[in-house]
Amino acid sequence: MHAVIETGAKQFRVKEGDVIRVEKLAAEVGQTVGLENVLLVSGDGVTKIGRPYLEGAKVTATVLTQDKGPKVLSLRYKAKKNIRVRKGHRQPFTALRIEKIEF
Hints:
By secondary structure, the chain is mainly β. It has one domain (2-102). Helices cover 0% and strands 65% of the residues. It has no helices and ten strands. It has strands at 2-7, 10-15, 19-23, 32-35, 38-43, 46-49, 58-68, 72-78, 83-89, 92-102. The chain has a four-stranded antiparallel beta sheet with strand order 2-1-5-6, with no helix packed on it. Strands 3-10-7-4 form a four-stranded antiparallel beta sheet, with no helix packed on it. Strands 8-9 form a two-stranded antiparallel ribbon. A hairpin with a 4-residue loop joins strand 8 and strand 9. The protein is elongated and about 65 Å long. The termini are close together.
């Protein structure tokens, strides 16, 4: 059984036991999180599609870590003007393990 969920303005195809990295959620490590925005559930020969979300469907996940992704560098440079600006950014994320898909 798998589901398509929406969190952090992104969509993920998940099944039980998967580990996904989503935009940072306000939850502690080890806490259980319910993801209510379920777009599709498929399994056992049955597929249910929401318009846009399935009512009563829920995906339960456990927070594994709260961390930051790899550093991404940006550089601005203007020739002959002695202007060089280098900036770095690390996007925070939350790692989730999918425990249960209910519909």
